[in-house]
Amino acid sequence: MSAIEGLIGEFGRLPGIGRKTAQRLTYHLLKGRPEDASRLSAAIDRVVAEVRPCGECGNLSSEAPCEYCRNSRRDASQICVVEEASDIAAIEASGRFRGRYHVLGGHLSPLDGVGPDELNIAQLVQRLAGGITELIIATNPSVEGEATAAYLHRAVAPFTGLRVTRLARGLPVGGDLEYADGVTIAEAFSGRREM
Ligand code: ZN
Questions:
Q1: Residue ranges in the chain assigned as alpha helix (H)
Q2: What is the 103 CA–ligand 1 centroid distance (Å)?
Q3: How far apart are CA 188 and CA 185, in angstroms?
Q4: Closest to 82 measured CA to CA, from 74, 91, 73
Q5: CA 59 to ligand 1 center in whole angstroms
Q6: What's the pTM value of the predicted model, to 2 decimals?
Q7: How far is the CA of 129 from the centre of ligand 1 (A)?
Q8: Per-residue pLDDT averaged across 125-132, rounded?
């Protein structure tokens, strides 16, 4: 395979990038200044080398623990559970939540072999033992996201006194949290209800 075909192939493996876009990106880089392409390559190398899941919450960060777990001004009594680290950026953009996060690393999907043990759930249960008063379940409003929320609700039942809430409806059904706008997410937080 030629060098050009190799890069087209790599771009084509990215989500939402078809063969045509992969070709366009590749030729765009080839036509541009070599240093621009090298900067992209270096940025990729850097995240691969530096970014790791936070040992506390599972967020992806170059810092350990991550910026949300380190920030003492954030409310440590509230944990918002999300499927992916990318969901955190969407919630932060809403400006509505000032607690801590917990990243599951996906959702329950038995057909794909993703059960509770494949998700970051045991660590969540451990964290709940430390003075958490509210667990906000912000898994996606999809079939899998709802099933995951219901599983979590049962899994944390032994923590009596823990308020377990779910973001209000209104988020695009079947869509990903990361694609919802800040105002919609802020409203979903304000209207969250007990599970
Ligand atoms: Zn963290």
A1: 3-12, 19-31, 34-50, 67-70, 85-94, 122-128, 143-155, 182-190
A2: 9
A3: 5
A4: 91
A5: 5
A6: 0.85
A7: 17
A8: 91
144, 108 in Cβ contact below 8 A?
yes
Strands in 99-103's sheet, in edge-to-edge order, are 99-103, 75-82, 134-137, 163-166, 193-194
Query: Could you tell me the distance, in angstroms and rounded to a whole number, from the CA of residue 32 to the centre of ligand 1?
Result: 38
What secondary structure letter does DSSP report for 116? G
Q: Give the integer Cα–Cα distance in Å for 192 and 107.
A: 20
C-alpha–C-alpha distance, residues 31 and 34, integer Å: 8
Tell me the two tokens of residue 73. 């001004």
Average pLDDT, the chain: 93
Residue 190 scores a pLDDT above 80: yes
Residue of 31, 9, 3 lying closest to 22 (CA atoms): 9
Sorting pLDDT into bands at 50, 70 and 90, what band is 73? very high
| Beta carbons within 10 angstroms of residue 93's beta carbon | 15
Q: Of 159, 158, 183, 157, which is closest to residue 170 (Cα–Cα)?
A: 183
**CA torsion, points 73, 79, 80, 82, in degrees to nearest 10?**
110
